[in-house]
Amino acid sequence: MSFDAWTVFAMFWLVFVTTQGPNAVNCINNSMTLGFRRVLVGGWRF
To answer: Which listed site, 12, 20, 28, 33, has its alpha carbon 20 to 30 Å from 41?
Structure first.
C-alpha cells in the first residue's frame, strides 16, 4: 500500500471511527435529560 493510499485510509478512519453516530448522541442526550434509572428501561419518555 502506498503512502498516499495509507494516508487517505487513515483520514477516513479518523473521521468515521472517532465521530459519534446518531445512536450514541441519542443515548447521551437521554441519559443527561432523563437520569440513570429511567434510561436503563430503554430511554422511553414517561
So the answer is: 20
